[in-house]
Amino acid sequence: MHKNFTQKTLSVGINKYEFTSSLSCCVNDATEVAHLLKRHANGDVNFDDVVLKKNSRKEKVEYALDNLFSDVRGCNHVLFFFSGHGYRTENDVYLVCRDSSLEDPGISLVQLMNRINKSSIPSITVILDCCHAGFIGDTEKNSNPMNGSFPVSCIRENVTLLAATTGPDVAGEDRIHGLFTKALLYGLQGAAADLFGQITPASLYALADSYFTAGQQRPLFKSNSTNLNTLRLGHAILDHQSIRELKNKRFHLERKDPVQLYPHEVCIDLKKTDKIQRFEQLIQYQRAGLIECPNNNSIYLSALLKRPYQLSALGNFYLELHNHEKI
Question: Residues 119-178: pLDDT tens digits?
């Protein structure tokens, strides 16, 4: 009897090669990604089936891919991560395995997409940190925009692809991690989290996009999704109850006019717990970007200067979500 898994991940990193130059950081990449995906920031289990492959031969990687994309009852999301060499031929790109050669370059991206598009797993995320990774999902590998020939992507519903480079580009590394994976790790550790700690493929890509400057490799994001998965939960800035508290009358945040602050609201009298809690909550709202003060002053300084505060655009957005009972 097969064990039921809600989420599965396969993380592959290959440093050692029999027929091409070795790399230094790919095993580190795969190991760290697998480690972070295993549990949320609070220690709760996230991906309940995590498979790590280091310096593996093609046969073992293909076997692991078959298991990853197989129809396991109860599994609603799988994630495949690869860090290693990417090799481009005239008609395809290959994820190079330890025993790959010119005659058998490795895992074909065309065949990988066929596996993905045929899989009955409801939602799939693929992250590739290798040269030419951006060709994944394209049906025209030799596109040339100058001649009016553009790549065409073919991705089934609820599949998301993150690539370290555009198709023609190469992926860089430092001594410890691939540059793309380095940005992803920052994101998975919490830099790409929203107010509630949710880290999605889109937020990871946004972080990676800002990590690279003009002239460097350009990461790529392709998705045909109606619902982006939360890949990991970082530490939340606020919880849902705090958002619902925006409507509490003691904050006066449903007014259209700014709310006046006064010096006496900066309370240090430990007996006045309600007053302390109110001001502490205002500090949290400002830290989360839900309220704002003139000249970007802190809530503390605004109170001392008798300045007002009001909901920010983000605060209005979350208040509307609450008003429509979506939080």
Answer: 999 999 999 999 999 999 887 655 555 555 556 678 999 999 999 998 888 998 888 999
Burial class (CB in 10 A: 0-12, 13-18, 19+), 141: middle
Can you count the helices (H) and strands (E) in the chain? Answer: 9, 14
CA separation for the pair 159, 196 (Å, rounded): 24
CA distance 105 to 113: 17
Instruction: Give dist(CA 123, CA 194) in Å, integer.
Output: 21
User: What is the dihedral angle through the alpha carbons of 88, 131, 124, 160, rounded to the nearest 10 degrees?
Assistant: -100
Say what the pTM is: 0.88
How far is the C-alpha of 31 from the C-alpha of 259, rounded, in Å?
50
CA 189, CA 37: separation in Å to the nearest integer? Answer: 10
- Is-contact 307 261, C-beta < 8 A? yes
- pLDDT tens digits for 54-93? 999 999 999 999 999 987 777 899 999 999 999 999 889 9
Minimal CA–CA distance to 286: which of 216, 218, 238, 229?
A: 238
Q: Which run of H or of E encompasses 115? A: helix 109-118
242's tokens: 């705090």
Q: Which residues contact 115 (CB under 8 A, 6 or more apart)?
A: 65, 66, 69
Instruction: Return d(Cα 28, Cα 181) in angstroms, integer.
Output: 10
User: Following DSSP, what letter does each residue of 194-219 receive, concatenated?
Assistant: -TT-EE-HHHHHHHHHHHSPTTS---
Residue whose pair of structure tokens reads 């078959």 in the numeric block: 66
Beta bridge partners, 153, equal 138
Strand partners, 178: 173
| DSSP H or E run through 279 | helix 273-287
Question: Do 321 and 273 form a contact (C-beta atoms < 8 A)?
Answer: no
